[in-house]
Amino acid sequence: MPDNYDSTWPPAAFARDVQTAGERAFEQQTEFMRRMLAPSMDAGLGGLDAMSRTTATFKTRVQSGGRISIPDAEREALGIEEGDIVQTVVIPLETRGDGDE
């Protein structure tokens, strides 16, 4: 255990670690969004506003064979039809341990 931890009250060290991890996650998400928005801003499209008209965020389950589905509402809003090519960014929300369904 590093010397800077207060050994008399371990929850304080845990709380600091959780806060540090949260701050790092926020910084990574901010950098990710900056990189995602950079092309639309460089093209003079107004950043998030323009991006929001051409993207959708939704949750879906991975089906057999690794397939995912785009919900009807999102396909309609974006004008996506069968056979269209789309680009995806996949961010797992949760993982299952061995033995889970």
How would you portray this structure in words?
With 101 residues, the chain is an all-alpha fold. It has a domain at 10-78. The protein has 3 helices and no strands. It has helices at 10-42, 48-54, 72-78. It starts with 9 loop residues before the first helix and ends in a 23-residue tail after the last helix. One of its GO terms (molecular function) is DNA binding. InterPro entries: SpoVT-AbrB_dom, SpoVT-AbrB_sf. Keywords: DNA-binding. Residues 57-101 form the SpoVT-AbrB domain.
What's the overall geometry? Answer: elongated
Question: How helix-rich are the residues, as a percent range?
Answer: 40-55%
Sheet with the most strands, sense and barrel status: none
Oligomer: single chain
- Poorly predicted regions are none
Question: How far apart are the first and last residues' alpha carbons, in Å?
Answer: 36 Å
pLDDT averaged over residues: 76
Count of separate DSSP helical elements: 3
Q: Summarize the helix and strand pattern as letters.
A: HHH
The radius of gyration is 20 Å
The structural class is mainly alpha
Strand content: under 5%
Number of strands: 0
Organism: Halobacterium litoreum
Protein name: AbrB/MazE/SpoVT family DNA-binding domain-containing protein
GO molecular function: DNA binding
Domain SpoVT-AbrB: 57-101
